[in-house]
Structures are given as structure tokens and as C-alpha cells.
Specification:
The complex is a heterodimer of chains A (327) and B (359). Chain A has 15 helices and no strands. By secondary structure, chain B is of the alpha/beta class. Chain B has a domain of 92 residues. In chain B, helix 5 packs across helix 6, helix 6 crosses helix 7 and helix 7 runs parallel beside helix 8. Chain B is globular and about 65 Å long. The relative contact order of chain B is 0.13. Classes of the chains: A mainly alpha (327), B alpha/beta (359). At the A-B interface, helix 9, helix 10 and helix 15 of A face helix 3 and helix 5 of B.
Chain lengths: 327, 359
């Protein structure tokens, strides 16, 4: 099974990348000026013995390499990310953990909506390339594509929350609000604008990419063959063009999934949405290095995993890559 | 193959078609393209052509002579900037050019094409078997299973081994791909098959195999075959009749034997003389100087006149009429008797001759 060998190679490559990220994570924070024991030493009431004891306790008496590195990698691999500075010494894993779900909710739903709408818009405009509908559709996609998330978010807040008053401006729930089904409705009302912002911002990207691959596919010989076969337009588009033209879009969607964690930063700040983006901003402001380190690692891993996913997906979808790899 | 033989007897014709009318008949067909600078380019300039069941017609000419455009026009597949200006294309009496022509009905079921370069003509992400089955299912309305079975038989018939049934186009060799393309073309049992340079991209051995297969299918299915190629040897091997095209016009047509042994039009003479003939021991080639005409600004008169050694003033002023001689040969050349009648003797055009190196 050469396919298995290829697969092992890919997975191995991904693991190696994550290890490199770990190493970088270790080096980066130790390159920064200052160190925990020196912070401690600034306090004149802390005795030299206490500092020495702290150095031993934190493992700082050992050399950076290999002891400290091994200790860091070992702790990280066993799920010990250390303690947050800002959040009263809580474990980093629990601080980060409770922010994952809110982020996944808005970015995940936003991605799915954007993908569906972007594919529809891209296929439609690509098929009509050069015609009026294409120009309007592509221009709209381009405008959405070039809008920064935070600005788009503020526009939506101004329109739907401030002016029309249909939806709440920020937060994840009404303080002291209801529970049960009414609570879920309340959550979705709060999530609507962040989701819409992310979806609108991504639609243009998918639509423009797909439009160009559809327009390109239209010039291919197999489309002429499909036409000569007397197939209907929708069959030509769905049965012949899209299976080819969707390949780059699917890859992009898989890659984007890697930025689920980090991509929502500005959106979460605009809507005060208590997810990883907002957490990142707060951790940056309070120099909460353990939390930042944890987010950084999580981000890197999700990007690496998304890349692997895109690779595998592409090879599943395109028989040329599949067999090229298996050969 | 009785199955192949009786499908043509029993085939149902599209509404409005007449079984007694000629299989495919093209009359005074003019096709032009609009260019970006606003000019119009005349790619096909009034051609007449017909094909009967079981007959093979070769269309020969240089690139840009209009031969592939004619094929696109027959299929109703001209690009958006192309249009049929005048003339008619009739399939069993049914006008395919007229407004509201049932092209969806006739395509593939009546007239199918094998394009040049099957690597691009087949869809890279669909298994060849499914590409054959697709039209059977969607155009003939057969259930998916029956369509897949029929596709299997067709692929076996064109010489694709069973173990390659589930292959994708890129997993097949060039010859196998062209065989598969032929199976795709035959999937709805068409009455007319157009081969647009079907063997051009293949090496000589594979080319011979594909041509042999095409010939066998033509006889088995009673296909009317239109073979478009720049390769005269292919036409000599495969076809009953030949039409020589230049600048969008058919300058000479007739039986392959007559046209190839006694080429009368100066262009036909140049075309036939442009390749050395090893079998005849000929070591000279005729040199045709100049460039093919710019179809966007054709000069008045005979399109070939600027390159013709026999051209005189009349050739550059008047279009030569297409004249039929003894119903065997048509010619469009001022050097020949304009009132038809007996087949005239060829007038040799004095081309410069290039002597090939002697050994």
C-alpha cells in the first residue's frame, strides 16, 4: 500500500511541524527580556534564599537545553499549559477551553453559510461571465471581500442594532436573561450579527475564486463534449464543471477552517463576543504569557491540521492527485 | 453484430424528420465570427456537403480553412461570437439551423463528435465508464444500471479491457483515451459521426489502430462519417469522398480516387505535392509560397488567387463558381470550363519544386 505510505508521510510531516512550533514557542518566550525570577527579585522583601528556592521550583536552575526544553515539551504534551497570570492563577487549559465553543459557534456557522452562498454566487457569475448579472455579482463579491471585518461589523451594528433595534449590539446573552429554549433564542439573537459579519466577509473570497475556476472550466474541451452530448445547462454545470472547479474552493475552505480560532479576533472585539479572539486581546493587554502561549500553540495546531485536512480532501476529490500519490 | 445493425433500422427519428430525406445535407452554409475590433471574419463561405449512411467523407485543408468551424456549426456549438449567416444544415430533412431547431434532441442521438485530444475532451474527474453511460442515461432515458451495462459493452467493443472500466482518463494511454472517446460518441447510437482531427495527437501506430476501429464502427453501425483532418493519407485510407477546403470554401470535391489521382484545382495539386511520396519514389515536393488568407479581410475573387501560379486578373476580381462535372467532381476554379459537362483534364500549376537530398 503506497497510499498508506503517502498518508503516513503527510501525518508525520504535520507532527514534525507541530514539534517545530513547540520549539519556537519555547524559544520565543525565553528570548523576551526579563524572566520570572528577576520579576521576583525586584521586590526587596524577597530574600535571596526564597529566589533560589523559586528558581529550583520553576526549574530555572537547570540549563535551557536540554532540561528546561524537555520539561516544557513534556508538560505541554501531557496537557499542562501552566497557569494564567490575569485569571487568578487558573489553569490555562480551562481558561482557553471555555472560550472555544463561543468562537466555534460564530466562525463555524459563518464559514458554512459563506461557503454555501459563495459557491452559489461563484457558480452563477462564472457561468454568466461577462454578462450583466456577472458584473453586478462579481462587483458585490469584490466589495464584500475588501471590507475589513471590524468595519463590516460596525456597519451591521449601526443598521440592525442601533438604528432598527432588531438585534442586540454585543455580548453573548442578555444579563439575567431566560434559560431553556428562550435562552437559546437569546443566544442566537446575539450570535446573528457576528455570524453575518463573518459570513459576508468570506462570501466574496469563495465567490471570486469559484467564479474564476468556473469561467476557466467553461473553456475546457470536456465542457464542449458535454454540450455536444446535448446535456442541459444545469447538468453541465453541476455534473461536469463544478466537480472540477470546486477543487480550489474546497481546499481554501479547509485552509480557512484552520483560522477558525484566530480569524474571529476583530469580530469578537467589535461585538464583545467572549471567544478566543477577545481572550487573545485581553491576554495581550495584560501580558498574560502562559495564556498567549497556549493560544499560540492551539492556533498553530489548528492551522497544521487544517492544512493536512485540505491535502487529504484534495487528494480524495481529484483522482489525478489521488493516483499520482498512490503511484 | 446484429445488435448494432438493427438499432439503425429501428431508430426513431426526431419529430419533423423524414426517413426518406438525405442523412445529412449542408447547403450554401456561411458561418462568420465577430472580432473584438468589430470586424467580421468569414470562416465558412458557402459550402455544400452531404453524407449518406455508411459513407465516409473527408474534409481536408490547412488550419483556418474552416473545416472545424463547419463541424461546430453542424453540432450547433459555435462559440458565442460565431453565427450562421445563411444556408441550411438538414438532418433527414430537419433543418438544424432554423430558429428553435431541436438541437438538444439531435445532438449525440443523431450526430456525435470525436474531438481531437481526448485528454481534454474527457472529463478528468469522472470515470470513463460513467462518461459513456451518462448520455445513455440522460439522453436515451435508460435506467442507470442498464446504461452502465451498455457502457461496459461499448468500451469492450472499442477495445478497452474490463479491468480499465473504472479508470479515470489520466490512467489510460492516449490511444485508449481516444477509444474511450469513441465509445462516448457511440453511446447513443448516432447516425452521423464527425471526427474532428481524431488521430492528430497520436503516434503513427496508435493512429492506424484508431482509424481501423473507426472504420469498423462505421461499417458495423452504418455511420455516416465526416472526417476532418489535415492529413491527406488518413483521408486516402478511410474515405469514399473528399472535400478540399481553402479560405472557407470547398475548392474541389469528388471521389478520393479521382481527386487524389487527378487533382485539378491548383490548391489540391499543391496540397498533394507538398509531401514526398516514398511509395511512388518521388523525392520532390511542390512549394506553396505565401500565407493562408486573412479571413477577416478576404480579397475579392478566388481566395487562393494570391498564391496561385495560374491566377490572372479575373481570378482576383470574380468569385469562381462551383461547377459540377459529370456529377463526379466539383471545382471552383476559373481555369476550368464554367458550364460543367465532361470531366476536364487537369491543368498543372507550375509550382517551384524542391529537390530533397539524395542518398
Amino acid at each position: 500500500m503506497k497510499l498508506r505510505g503517502w498518508l503516513l508521510g503527510r501525518v508525520g510531516g504535520a507532527l514534525a511541524t507541530i514539534l517545530m512550533v513547540l520549539l519556537l514557542n519555547f524559544v520565543l518566550f525565553r528570548l523576551m527580556p526579563g524572566s520570572p525570577d528577576r520579576t521576583l527579585a525586584r521586590n526587596p522583601r524577597v530574600s535571596a534564599e526564597a529566589i533560589a528556592a523559586a528558581r529550583v521550583r520553576w526549574g530555572l536552575d537547570k540549563p535551557l537545553f536540554p532540561d528546561q526544553l524537555v520539561a516544557y515539551v513534556g508538560a505541554t504534551l501531557s496537557g499542562d499549559f501552566g497557569y494564567s497570570v490575569k485569571y487568578g492563577g487558573r489553569e490555562v487549559t480551562s481558561v482557553i477551553g471555555e472560550k472555544i465553543a463561543p468562537t466555534l459557534l460564530i466562525v463555524g456557522l459563518g464559514e458554512i453559510i459563506a461557503l454555501a452562498a459563495g459557491i452559489a454566487l461563484g457558480a452563477w457569475t462564472g457561468w454568466r461571465r461577462g454578462k450583466f448579472g456577472d458584473r453586478v455579482g462579481t462587483l458585490s463579491a469584490l466589495i464584500l471581500y475588501s471590507m475589513p471585518y471590524f468595519w463590516l461589523g460596525m456597519l451591521l451594528v449601526t443598521l440592525f442594532a442601533t438604528t432598527l433595534g432588531w438585534l442586540p449590539t454585543s455580548g453573548i446573552s442578555t444579563p439575567g436573561g431566560p434559560g431553556g429554549v428562550a435562552g437559546i433564542v437569546d443566544l442566537l439573537r446575539h450570535a446573528a450579527l457576528p455570524i453575518a459579519t463573518i459570513a459576508l466577509g468570506l462570501i466574496g473570497q469563495y465567490a471570486i475564486l469559484l467564479r474564476s475556476s468556473v469561467a476557466e472550466a467553461l473553456r475546457e474541451g470536456y465542457v464542449l463534449t458535454a454540450r455536444a452530448k446535448g446535456l442541459r445547462d444545469d447538468r453541465i454545470l453541476r455534473g461536469h464543471i463544478l466537480p472540477n472547479a470546486l477543487l480550489p474552493t474546497v481546499t481554501l475552505a479547509a485552509l480557512n477552517a484552520g483560522y477558525v480560532i484566530g480569524g474571529a479576533l476583530t469580530v469578537e472585539i467589535v461585538f464583545s463576543w467572549p471567544g478566543l479572539g477577545l481572550l487573545t486581546q485581553e491576554a495581550l493587554q495584560s501580558r498574560d504569557y502562559p495564556v498567549l502561549q497556549g493560544i499560540f500553540l492551539l492556533l498553530s495546531i489548528s492551522v497544521v491540521v487544517a492544512n493536512l485536512l485540505a491535502d487529504l480532501l484534495y487528494s480524495r476529490l481529484d483522482p489525478r492527485v489521488r493516483h499520482g500519490a498512490a503511484r | 453484430m446484429s445488435g448494432a445493425a438493427n438499432h439503425n433500422d429501428a431508430r426513431s427519428l426526431p419529430a419533423g424528420a423524414n426517413a426518406a430525406a438525405p442523412l445529412l445535407e449542408i447547403r450554401a452554409l456561411r458561418v462568420s465570427f465577430s472580432l473584438e475590433d468589430g470586424r467580421r471574419l468569414t470562416a465558412v463561405d458557402g459550402i455544400n456537403l452531404s453524407v449518406s449512411p455508411g459513407e465516409a467523407i473527408g474534409i481536408a485543408g490547412e488550419s483556418g480553412s474552416g473545416k472545424s468551424t463547419a463541424a461546430s456549426a453542424i453540432m450547433g456549438l459555435l462559440p458565442p461570437n460565431g453565427r450562421i449567416d445563411s444556408g441550411s444544415i438538414r438532418y433527414r430533412g430537419l433543418d438544424l439551423v432554423a430558429e428553435g431547431a431541436p438541437l438538444r434532441r439531435t445532438r449525440w442521438r443523431e450526430i456525435a463528435v470525436v474531438f481531437q485530444g481526448s485528454l481534454v475532451a474527457l472529463n478528468p474527474v469522472i470515470k470513463v465508464r460513467d462518461q459513456v453511460a451518462e448520455a445513455i442515461e440522460l439522453r436515451l432515458g435508460e435506467p442507470a444500471n442498464a446504461a452502465r451495462e451498455k457502457a461496459k459493452r461499448l468500451l469492450a467493443d472499442v477495445g478497452i479491457p474490463d479491468k480499465r472500466l473504472e479508470a479515470y482518463p489520466h490512467q489510460l494511454s492516449g490511444g485508449q483515451r481516444q477509444r474511450a472517446m469513441l465509445a462516448v460518441a457511440l453511446s447513443c447510437s448516432p447516425a452521423v459521426l464527425i471526427g474532428d482531427e481524431p488521430t492528430t495527437a497520436l503516434d503513427v501506430i496508435v493512429q492506424a489502430q484508431i482509424l481501423e476501429l473507426l472504420d469498423r464502427m462505421r461499417h458495423e453501425y452504418g455511420l455516416g462519417l465526416i472526417l476532418i483532418t489535415h492529413d491527406l493519407a488518413v483521408i486516402a485510407d478511410m474515405c469514399d469522398r473528399v472535400a478540399i477546403m481553402y479560405g472557407g470554401r470547398i475548392v474541389e470535391s469528388g471521389s478520393v480516387r479521382e481527386v487524389f489521382t487527378n487533382p485539378r484545382h491548383p490548391y489540391t495539386q499543391a496540397l498533394l505535392g507538398a509531401a514526398p511520396d516514398a511509395r511512388a519514389g518521388r523525392r520532390t515536393i511542390k512549394v506553396l509560397e505565401g500565407q493562408p488568407p486573412d479571413l477577416a479581410s478576404l480579397p475579392p475573387g478566388c481566395h487562393f488567387a494570391p498564391r496561385c501560379p495560374l491566377a490572372d486578373a479575373r481570378c482576383t476580381e470574380e468569385d469562381p463558381p462551383t461547377v459540377s462535372y459529370e456529377d463526379r467532381v466539383t471545382l471552383a476554379c476559373h481555369r476550368y470550363e464554367p458550364n460543367g459537362g465532361a470531366l476536364p483534364a487537369p491543368v498543372a500549376a507550375p509550382y517551384p519544386v524542391l529537390e530533397l537530398g539524395k542518398r
